[in-house]
Amino acid sequence: MAEHNILGNKGEEIAVDFLKNKGYRILNTNWRKGRYELDIVACFNEELVVVEVKTRSDNSIIAPEEAVDRKKILHIVAAANKYVCYFDIDLPVRFDIIAITGGKIEHIEDAFYPPAMFDKS
């Protein structure tokens, strides 16, 4: 397994433990359906929380959360829509990012909102 995959898997394990300690109920990790994938899906305060985990080493040039660009957001939102439909979930959905750099964990709640589908910019 490539070193970046090992780092990413370790980051997701850390994120799951972090969320559990905050009282989140983890529903799925690394959920996949076709071309769709979500890092962590959890429940918290009657919300479905979709969490994108980004892990970087200490010497990374950019912050982990900066890797969640518009293209990635569109993919996460589409995957979340697929998840909600697949499991017939009727809860509000929130999108969070957990950014891990070295030993530092930052949980960004409401990190982004689904973009308007008619907005092509």
SSE layout and pairing:
Layout: H1 3-21, E1 25-33, E2 36-44, E3 47-56, H2 70-87, E4 93-101, E5 104-112
List the main descriptive attributes of the protein structure presented here:
Trna Endonuclease, Chain: A, domain 1, 121 residues, alpha+beta, 5-stranded mixed sheet, globular, 38% strand, single chain
Would you give an account of this structure?
The chain has 121 residues and is of the alpha+beta class. It has one domain (3-112): Trna Endonuclease, Chain: A, domain 1 (3-Layer(aba) Sandwich), CATH 3.40.1350. Helices cover 31% and strands 38% of the residues. It has two helices and five strands; from the N terminus they run H-E-E-E-H-E-E. It has helices at 3-21, 70-87, and strands spanning 25-33, 36-44, 47-56, 93-101, 104-112. It has a five-stranded mixed β-sheet. A hairpin with a 2-residue loop joins strand 4 (93-101) and strand 5. The radius of gyration is 14 Å and the shape is globular. The chain starts with a helix and ends in a 9-residue tail after the last strand. The model has no long low-confidence stretch (mean pLDDT 88).
